[in-house]
């Protein structure tokens, strides 16, 4: 059974940092284009970042333009955990963040809430 459990959300001021974590079970991260997606209040799901760990190459990361240079996706394959390091946070980063097995967020966890406010 595929299971994804996110943690690490919270409230921070603009410019602050958070590190989100996702514990995956029932599969190996390398089997999928693991992704983070988010949902801002009153809006739909938005893709944030993906990591491609297949093919025996180094992890390949891709990012939405809105987060490039501020958010970093990474994976610990030994622990089967996915991370999202979030720096220089802005108010528009507020939302519920989900760990997902694909960029569309079709299969995702329960989410962790991030609030960026002064």
Q: Bin the helical content.
A: under 10%
Helix and strand composition category: mainly beta
Residue-averaged pLDDT, rounded? 95
Query: Within the largest sheet, what's the order of strands?
Result: 2-10-9-4-5-6
Distance between the termini: 40 Å
Order of helices and strands: EEEEEEEEEE
Describe the overall structure:
The chain is an all-beta fold. It has no helices and 10 strands. Strands 2-10-9-4-5-6 form a 6-stranded mixed β-sheet, with no helix packed on it. Strand 4 and strand 5 form a beta hairpin.
Secondary structure elements and their pairing?
Blueprint: E1 3-7, E2 10-12, E3 18-25, E4 33-39, E5 45-52, E6 60-63, E7 71-76, E8 81-86, E9 95-100, E10 112-116
Parallel strand pairs: 2-10
Antiparallel strand pairs: 1-3, 3-8, 4-5, 4-9, 5-6, 7-8, 9-10
State the gist of this model.
With 118 residues, the protein is mostly beta strands.
Could you list some keywords that capture this structure?
118 residues; mainly beta; six-stranded mixed sheet; four-stranded antiparallel sheet
């Amino acid at each position: 059974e595929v299971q994804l459990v996110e943690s690490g959300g919270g409230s921070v001021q603009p410019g602050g940092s958070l590190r989100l974590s996702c514990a995956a079970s029932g599969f190996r991260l390398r089997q999928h284009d693991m992704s983070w997606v988010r949902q801002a209040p009153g809006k739909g799901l938005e893709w944030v970042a993906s990591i491609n760990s297949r093919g025996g190459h180094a992890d390949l990361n891709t990012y939405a333009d809105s987060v490039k240079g501020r958010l970093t996706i990474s994976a610990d394959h030994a622990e089967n955990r996915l991370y999202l390091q979030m720096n220089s946070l802005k108010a528009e980063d507020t939302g519920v963040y989900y760990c997902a097995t694909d960029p569309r967020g079709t299969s995702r966890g329960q989410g962790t809430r991030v609030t960026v406010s002064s």
